[in-house]
Amino acid sequence: MYEAVIGLEVHVELKTRSKIFCSSTTEFGGEPNTHVCPVCLGLPGVLPVVNREVVDYAIRVALALNCQIARFCKFDRKNYYYPDLPKNYQISQYDLPLAQNGYLEIETENGPKRVGITRIHMEEDAGKLVHQGNIATTPYSLVDYNRTGVPLLEIVSEPDLRSPEEARAYLEKLRTIIQYTGVSDCKMEEGSLRCDANVSVRPAGGDALGTKTEIKNMNSFRALHRALAYEIERQIAVLTEGGRVVQETRAWDEDRGVTVSMRSKEEAHDYRYFPDPDLVPLVIDEAWIEKVRTTLPELPDARRKRYMEDFGLSRYDATVLTSSKELGDYFEACVAAYPHPKTVANWVMGELARLLNAHNMDIIASPVAPAQLAALLRLIDDGTISGKIAKTVFEDMFTTRKDPATIVREKGLVQITDVDAIAAVVDEVINANPKSVQDYKAGKEKALGFLVGQVMKATRGKANPALVNKLLKEKLN
User: Fold this and answer.
1) Burial class of 221 by CB neighbour count within 10 A (0 to 12, 13 to 18, 19+)
2) Cα separation of 187 and 86, whole Å?
3) Domains of the chain, with CATH numbers?
4) What DSSP line would sit under 427-456, residue for residue?
């Protein structure tokens, strides 16, 4: 039996307006090579200047991840050649990073688990290669330097993860925390959050680490999970057959569902790190840290605890509703307008989530505002519509953006609460379904449900369900 040992290196693009060492814009997109300047292009005679907001953001993330923040840190040059790196080195941090020794907690099938954060450091992003042509013609690559110099945080975990499921839970939790801090949008599809994984296998229960491989640049939770599952099985198969796992960097081929070898794995000495002579070290005093601490919002774990204590929600419901800051904000706006948290939670996680998923939309783009959902729930409470009709009205609200009262009025969906009107329909249903009546009197409770359904069908779902049940039972008994 083997077990996996996994550590993740996560790169987060910070959403500052300008790059880390120059004033060029960090805006996503744009024509290739238009968001550049002599500094981020590495032209002769230029000098970098640190963007203070990048340091503020880095401190904010470090505090959110329970890290020890260095009072003295510096920038280093990481030397390597690649066409998307115009200076032939990357400004990063090596032996004196901004923060170390943090942690976050994830939920696993065996309960909560603490995962260590080894370090957080600041660095600049590289450019982007755009590959053109194919084997049948002449393949070539173009370079877009717009992304060069965009500020990054690299967050390195301890090798505390033991399965693809735990790795995915860690990345999801990390993404949520960073989104709460407001330093990045973490849009994986745009490259704002990217993940590399270091994985090895060893005999279950052993202490020694196996030879690790690195899987580069996975840009979705699904890709991370699939790549790790494949690589773990690949390494186990190699060892089972008497082979030796080679330390190397591998890429994930999404289409084929396999990892493929890219190159041998570099070591730190291969990059010939040395302190960047153009950037002075950073001295971060307690006053600076405390000033940044005041900008921290309520983080997901604290918010989940509050939902459980103040709103009486289950741990599951509270976890779902705090899985993104925007979702939590939406939920709380609804509760402010309609102070029944459990009912609101059911609708937000039920009907609203279903329609958002069906339309591939995020909560921030919801066509139904919190005040509109609250208004719909009040219509149920005052008996204007039934819960079943409310779901139909909600779908119309989602499509048309109209208020619930307007839809109910336009479609004539007001609930029938007149006892005599409902009684007349009940009589018709009883007379039309003698077998079901006999089944009910013989003790078959399901027959009552059928009769209720027939009354609701005859009234187009507008009869008050409680009244229908009451009248049917009275007449049948």
Assistant:
1) middle
2) 25
3) 2-290 (no CATH), 300-410 (no CATH), 419-476 (1.10.10.410)
4) HHHHHH-HHHHHHHHTT-THHHHHHHHHHH
| Reported confidence tier of residue 412, pLDDT bands at 50, 70, 90 | confident
Provide the b/e sequence for 262-299 (b: ≥16 CB within 10 Å): eeebeeeeebebeebeebeebebeeebeeebeeeeeeb
pTM for the predicted model, two decimal places: 0.84
Question: Rounded to an integer, what distance in angstroms lies between the CA atom of residue 341 and that of residue 237?
Answer: 51
pLDDT of residue 416: 61
Report whether 352 contacts 366 (CB < 8 A): yes
CA distance 412 to 141: 62
Q: Is 300 within 8 Å of 339 (Cβ atoms)?
A: no
Alpha-carbon span 216 to 249, nearest angstrom: 7
Please provide the average confidence, as pLDDT, over all residues in the chain.
90
Tell me the angle at which helices 419-432 and 446-458 cross, rounded to the nearest 10 degrees.
Answer: 120
Q: Is 311 helix (H, G, I), strand (E, B) or coil?
A: coil
Torsion region of 32: left, alpha or beta (phi above 0 gives left; psi -120 to 50 gives alpha): beta
For the segment 451-475, the average pLDDT, to the nearest whole number, is 72
DSSP letter (8 states) at residue 477: -
pLDDT at residue number 450: 80
Extract the tokens encoding 274: 């040395």
The DSSP-derived string for 188-227 is GGGTSEEEEEEEEEEETT--S----EEEEEE-SHHHHHHH
Condensed to tens digits (0 to 9), the pLDDT of residues 417-445 reads 656 667 777 777 777 777 777 776 777 77
Contact between residue 417 and residue 467 where contact means Cβ atoms under 8 Å apart: yes
Of 51, 170, 42, nearest to 102 by C-alpha is: 170
Compute how many other C-beta atoms are within 10 angstroms of the C-beta atom of residue 159: 18
Query: Quick one: average pLDDT of 89-104?
Result: 97
Between CA 311 and CA 287 the distance in angstroms is 36
pLDDT digits (tens, 9 = 90+) for 159-183: 999 999 999 999 999 999 999 999 9
Task: Please check whether residue 214 is in contact with residue 183, taking contact to mean a CB–CB distance below 8 angstroms.
Answer: no
Which position has the higher pLDDT, 426 or 410? 410
Q: What angle do CA 305, 309, 311 make, to 5 degrees?
A: 105
